[in-house]
Each structure stands twice: as C-alpha cells, then as structure tokens.
Design brief:
Structural class: alpha+beta
Number of helices: 7
Largest sheet: 4 strands, mixed
CATH class of the largest domain: Mainly Alpha
Number of domains: 2
Oligomer: single chain
CATH topology of the largest domain: Glutathione S-transferase Yfyf (Class Pi), Chain A, domain 2
Strand order of the largest sheet: 2-1-3-4
C-alpha cells in the first residue's frame, strides 16, 4: 500500500496514527506531497483523487481510497485482528461515530476554515474572508471548552477506551495551533487527556 500525504497536514496524521495503533505503519509506503507547490494538482494525482486532496491510500491492486475516515474504515475492516478503533459492538460503534461527527463538523472543519481564511496559505487559489475566519476561530475556542467539560469524568472520549475519536481530537487540537488556539490553564481535564494521548507511541507517527 502507498499513502499519499503531506506529513505536516492534520488529515494524513490522523491516518498515520490509525495505522500505528493497528501496527500497520511499516506496511505502507509513504509518498510526500507538497500542496503549496501544487503537487496535488497534477494530472497523475487527480487521477487518484479527483477532489485533489490528501491523504490517499493506494492499494496493491491500484485502487485508490480518498478521505481520512474512508481510509480508516477500510483498514479497520481489512485487519479485524488488530486493535479495534471504530467500535466492537453496535453501541460502541454508534458512540464513536457520534463523536467523529461532532469532531468533524464542529471542531476540525472550523479549524480548517480559520486556517484557510486567516493564514493566507492558499491566497493564490482562494479569496480569504477574514471575518469568516475569525468566526470559525471563535467556534474552535468554544469547542475546546466543550471538550474540557466532556472529559471531566472520563479518560477517553468514547466507548470507555482509546478510539479513533481520540485520534481525531488530538490531531485537531494540535492543528489549532496554526490559528493560535491552545488549551487554556483552566481546561485541566482537556490537558490531562491531551497528555495521555500524546504519550502514546502513535502520536509520534
């Protein structure tokens, strides 16, 4: 398998952490892309993912899977004997999926929008809207408080154990640094969780 990625980007990191937790990282050839230079806009890459985004997992038979969670679900179902990260019972699966949706829509998406509209990173291919960027940043700050409250009486976000929800949350907390949003001193439950997740070997992947 090949993983097309940009190592510093948050979505590829989510896949790498998932692979590491599954013990599969050494079975994947990583292909580094430079999005700012437009590597993802080449005809060769567009043939792999017409949405022109990373990550993309290319299987040995040439099939290409785009979108972070689609890749993770493929890995989960293809290697069921490895540690489970998306739920081993209907109840677990539903709870984890609930958190994945919350994290995607109310945390990762506004963080990405704040980055795009405030950093100028993609100003050559989009029209930034500073007001929208600041609104998204405010929503990210609110979600930090939400996470802190949710973690008040538990170690992990879902299913009473480490799951893909924790992976996605960690990668987004770290990504939020690019728009200068960080865990605040009073967010002690979030900080304790962050230290637990960051101490895992997969967090270094």
């Amino acid at each position: 398998m090949k993983l097309y990625e940009m190592a510093i980007a948050p979505n590829p990191r989510r896949v790498r952490m998932f692979l590491a937790e599954k013990g599969l990282l050494d079975q994947v050839e990583r292909v580094e892309m430079d999005l700012q230079k437009g590597d993802n806009l080449s005809p060769e890459f567009i043939a792999k993912n017409p949405m022109k985004k990373v990550p993309v997992l290319e299987l040995d038979d040439g099939t290409c899977i785009a979108e972070t969670m689609a890749i993770c679900r493929y890995l989960e179902e293809s290697f069921p004997d490895r540690p489970n990260l998306l739920g081993s019972t209907p109840k677990e699966s539903a709870e984890i999926e609930q958190w994945l949706r919350w994290l995607e829509f109310y945390f990762f998406l506004p963080t990405g929008m704040a980055f795009q509209h405030l950093s100028g990173y993609f100003k050559d291919r989009m029209t930034p809207n500073e007001a929208w960027g600041n609104e998204c940043k405010t929503n990210v700050e609110k979600f930090f408080h939400f996470l802190n409250k949710q973690l008040e009486h538990k170690e992990w976000l879902a299913a009473g154990r480490f799951t893909a929800a924790d992976i996605n949350a960690l990668c987004t907390v770290d990504f939020a640094r690019v728009v200068n949003v960080r865990i605040q001193p009073e967010q002690k439950h979030l900080q304790a969780w962050y230290e637990r997740v960051s101490a895992r070997e997969s967090a270094k992947a």
